[in-house]
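User: Is it possible to get a 3D structure for a protein together with its bound compound? The compound here is zinc ion. I've pasted both below.
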Amino acid sequence: MSQYRDVLSDLHPRHQFHAHCHPCGRFFEVPVTALIERLGPDTPTTVAMQKITCAQCGGRASVNRGYPKEDGEGYFLRPNPLDKRP
Ligand SMILES: [Zn+2]
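Assistant: Yes, that's possible. Here is the predicted structure of the complex:
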């Protein structure tokens, strides 16, 4: 039995982060690869989510995590995707 750690390097390949900057109203996506590059693969996902800021105004963004739907429209947003680990 292996323990799943909620760190960046263990995220599902289809996992996505959707960020919303409240000060400027901007929506943007954050690639997992960019987070790993900046923070390292062992960074806990919840910590990484708190570090995401808006590139335009520098404000702290609120972040949802989720997976794209099979039909490509919209997203399943899961506060806790631990059960999705293959
Ligand atoms: Zn902003």
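Residues 32-39 form the longest helix (8 residues). Residues 15-84 form one domain.
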